[in-house]
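ARCHIVE CARD
Drawer: 12
Card no.: 0347
Subject: one protein chain, sequence and derived structure
Cross-reference: see card 0346
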Amino acid sequence: MQLPKEVPVMTLPNATLFPKAMLPLYIFEPRYRQMLADALDSHRMVSVAMLKPGRTREIPSVVAGLGLIRASVANRDGSSHLILQGLARVELEKAVKYKPYRIQRIRPLVTTGESNSSVEPLTQKVMALVGKRLEQGLDFPIQTLKQGSRIPTHEQEDAPSLFSLEQIVQYLATLDDPDQMADLVSCALLTEPIHRQMILEAVELETRLRQLITFLEEEIRRNRKKKK
């Protein structure tokens, strides 16, 4: 799929859109309603960027997720519910427009270091931690994109399915792509927005896996303390 050189950018406080993952959004602001209408009439792509921590102004993080609108359902009050499928990590470059919504040039970011000899043992460590985290149980919904869903031609067609946690873990076990595995685990199991953003920004795969291991261990310790 050819990516556009510039896309609309939504800046949100805690949202992270990973490649191959799914992000449901509720669109109600007038500017984003217009953004959605324009995107549906063109390439159907939108970038989701996390608001830079500690900023009062709406300044997006430099690394964001580029998503394809897989389903959009318009409500009677003019708002919409939509589902974005993550396509790629992108670096936000020059802003070409600010009103009524932000549009920026983008540069796709490609994962590096996939042939590094440390990737396989780190991947095995991640999956072991996923198993430990699963044993603790979860109290939040898990969202990921059903593989093979087609792009709808009408707004209410073919909305992607939500997987249960067990289905996600089974799916992760079948993956032979550590890049995709790390992203989906981060999407499903990391509760801290800043941790998800750090994983999104980690283009080098070994770095991403090591960070993910650290964050999963933190999640496990935190949940162990809650149950005492």
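Annotation on reverse: Confidence is low (pLDDT under 50) at residues 141-161. Strands lie at 6-12, 22-27, 45-50, 63-74, 80-97, 103-109.
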